[in-house]
Records
---
Amino acid sequence: MKRESLSEHEPKINIMRSNEAPPDVKENPFYDSEFWGRAKSPEEVYLPDSDEGISFAMAAHEIGHLVEEGAHNDASLDNFEATKKEEQRAWDKGWPYLEKYLSEYFGDNTVEQDKVPVIYSKIKDLMMQATELSQGMYVDDNSLEKVDEDQQEALLVKRRNEFFVTHGEEIKNIFDQIKDQRTGKKTDWEKYVKVVSSAIKDILIDNQKMSDTAIEPIPIGRGEQIQNENQLAEIKKVEEKALLLYKRIVAVEKEKRQKLEQELKTDKADYELVYLFQKDITELEKLENDLDDVLIELSNKQFTSFNRLVELEERIMQKGY
Ligand SMILES: [Zn+2]
């Protein structure tokens, strides 16, 4: 079924102040309403109503979690690497969306506006340091799966409290450095909510576009020589692999294009630009090779009709770049 488009339904965006956080959050010894934030969904966003620079830096990060492109959904307390990647991704993805609206908030006050990217960048580094330090709080990879759901929460609270005793001071030291980024100017909450909401709206539109470029699976049963359910499942699996790879290629292409546009505005020399994009090109080539392999794998399956393969390739190509 097709998802309703954003134009038909205004997205519900609800931004709350961090000091309105649920009680279980406030019990966390690391919770501090001055910079704590969370964005589980557009309807449930908590952001700090504190010093302007800190509020904007944290908004850039939290809304980054709402960007669906490349999200790491396996981030949890038993998977440190995935959590770290997701934190870094949120920092990188959210900023461009928020940056566009800074002038709407600051108006002619370019002096204050210019402080924001600097503070964002410092807080990003500090927060990633804190994430790195928090590795000690994580349990062995995926070991939580073996624990009963109702015991998981208790285990996490226990580990967090133990960690607070052993590493609390180091983390607090980082948090103090975050607080050092204060500009001395309090956030204009109403205006802030307005511009952050605009940024979130843009994210939701892009998320929608991403899901629209997803390729519909080909209906089974038009002239294919499918003999049993297992064959059908196998074909579907390989096709899904192809579609996933293609989606990733589109995402990398888009990222590469955005980065290039950004870099072209700087005064980097051509050879520097080439060097910068070599890495992306390598990743892209690898993905394209993988896609070719999967398509070959599919064509080698004797029970896949030639028509079906052609149709899949056409669907992939038609989406265009
Ligand atoms: Zn985060």
Note: Strands lie at 15-17, 38-41, 44-47.
---
Amino acid sequence: MHEESKPAFSFNFGAAAPTPTTTTATALQFNPVVTVPKSVSLPTTSTSTARKEHRALFTVSGMEASSTVRPKLESPWRDVEWTAEQRTNLMKTVSSYRPSSGEVTQAQVLLLGPVGAGKSSFISSVQSVFSGRVTNRAMVGSSSSSSFTKKLQPFNILGQKGEDPTGVVLCDIMGLSDGEMTGLTLHDVLSVIKGHVPVGHKFSPDQPVTAETEGYVRRPTLQDKIHCVAFVVDASKVLTYPKGLSSTFQQLREHISDLGVHQVALLTQVDKICSETAKDVTHVYKSRIVQDMMSKAGALLGMSTSYIVPVRNYSSELNLDVNTDVLLLSAVDHILQYADLYFQDNTAQDMESVKFKN
Ligand SMILES: Nc1nc2c(ncn2[C@@H]2O[C@H](COP(=O)(O)OP(=O)(O)O)[C@@H](O)[C@H]2O)c(=O)[nH]1
Ligand SMILES: [Mg+2]
């Protein structure tokens, strides 16, 4: 049984908190005061590192100045092979990926971020890469719509024509609100991650997920759960997101880490902050502006930049571009590495408990 106290806050900054109803002995304490995670020592959970990072990043001055003076780095800060061959290799890697746990067939990845960050676009773009043409299956909203996606919607990433679905499912969800009264609550996000929320569930901030919710999954299997969370932020908004978003991310990260789920981040819309990258995506790792924005996104998320990858989604294009495909596939590959850590951790734990029983 996993009923828990409802959160003492929601992501609708300033919105009324739902009143708690049922609690159990194992209930998580949703304390709005930030607590340091106790047991999980994932690389992504280092709160102290995150805080240090905050300090360091916020005291750096003249970043923009240097961007203007020297917008391009002499050598890229991450190496990527921008070739059709690399695209083929990455497609093979992604489509042949199978979770390293016999119990599940697909890794479930939850995309979390504010409305308009590019979550649905990322899903559509990855599907486009595999289908060989630009499609919009994940119902991308316009940048002004409040939150087009209100349901929990998993998308199988299908292999190329005739191939089986890949071992990855990208789950789209309503956006974290950045000020309106429509955002997801921490309670609901954690219910999704634990596997209690049925596919197609329509979120509503005043109707939190409980055992009475239609289709509530009482005893989630490993396949029902989320195995990796990918935060999604818009590079062109990192500097203007409401202040509360950063603490929302920190709280989410701490609770998600407590569940043993690794987290990565996608910095989308990099074409909007760097015109060179907009013209030619192979500039992305040479762009000082993008590099600086990655650090700022790291500070916003409380995450080291090594977990963050830049992404350029297909938005208005009609044709695929090999370099954009490579960047998108690299992001999926990055996500899968952290999803697989979950299976490795859980398999290792199972082994421990077997040893213990014997
Ligand atoms: N230029 C550009 N636009 C993007 C990118 N990603 C998303 N968009 C646009 O941003 C808007 C919001 O995207 P959407 O995927 O609906 O965001 P969501 O609310 O997070 O699902 C849409 O108009 C997209 O076309 C990107 O990488 N580059
Ligand atoms: Mg969406």
Note: Residues 113, 115-121, 140-143, 148-149, 175, 268-269, 271-272, 312-313, 315 surround guanosine-5'-diphosphate (ligand 1) (CB under 6 Å).
